[in-house]
Description:
The protein is an alpha+beta fold. The chain has eleven helices and seven strands. Strands 3-4-5-7-6 form a five-stranded mixed sheet. Strands 1-2 form a two-stranded antiparallel sheet. The longest helix is centred in the middle third of the chain and has 71 residues, at 156-226.
Amino acid sequence: MTExxxxxxxRPDPQVRIGQGPRNxxxxxVKMLWIGVWLIxxxxxxxxxxxxxxTAGATVAGAAGLTLFVATYLxxxxxxxGRPFAxxxxxxxxxxxxxxxxxxxxxLGTPWLGLFVYVSVACGATLPVRAAYWAIPATAAxxxxxxxxxxxxxxxxxxxxxxxxxxxxxxxxxxxRTTVELRKARATxxxxxxxxxxxxxxxxxxxxxxxxxxxITLKSELAGRMLPDHPDxxxxxxxxxxxxxxxxxxxxxxxxxxxxxxxxxxxxAGAHVALTxxxxxxxxxxxxxxxxxxxxxxxxxxxxxxxxVTNVVRHSGADRCLIRLAHRQTLDGPVLELVVxxxxxxxxxxxxxxxxxxxxxxxxxxxxxxxxxxxKHGFRxxxxxxxxxxxxxxxxx
Length: 397
């Protein structure tokens, strides 16, 4: 559960991660539903057992074999969506499926040919691509031969399903593996960027403080030597030390403030990446050129964009998001206006959350305003900051 800044309440994270295990009950149910849909091919074997077409012993043996088959298949496929089995265990479980499917189909009849679809799915979802390219046609061939064993002439559909669904799962498996690798790469890039930022901060602080601290040390030594015989000169050195230390403190504060202040162009780029990764179709403005916009106003607008996009990704459940940035003339003078609008249904509730309250206070300090609330088909946030009359700010579509 996460706090929804728009309402102050708690909402579950709507994003289901591909290629990772379920984090909560909701994700568990979603992934079980996705897997359960494909159990439709078990209808024929179940009907065959319930129809009384076999002896009591054959019915019991068939039910036991079907239960073992389904349990093996579900454990293999469901585990592969989170923490996969070791390669040796995967091969062992697929071997169990590969033995049960032809055995049940060859002994109980053509209604059991649908089990080969699950063998093909398991091969495509869990085996390496090169191995799956051999295993799926082999499964289809065994399915075809088993159908001929019962004199079944119309086995083309079964053969087509085994091949089609198996190779489709190869593509799904590739997508999952690519997503996992992309997630790892993004984490690595973020870590490298953080390390680079630390190094840059260390270099800048060294450049800022190295000279000042050296000067303070030198003047402290001079003041110590002058103190017994020349107190007036020592006092002057102490005054110089105070002045240098105060200037160094100002430089450090300015440097840290510059690092903490977000930039509108950077936030727009980050918003596009975040929305795309969350599966939200984004309509973005052209890159802004906030010439003449005060740094504090630009910073407040950048914070507003970051908070709004975070709400869209984490709480709205939207699939479309529109971001507009335009220079407008109002009764109070020219303003730079940011609009973030989504078509999600999340965020309903009474009263603004802590996130919007903090944004309102930040914008008010910069002389701006914030409007946020539900509209007909979603949620809209409008942030405005004043700009100088001569400011020429790029606008977006």
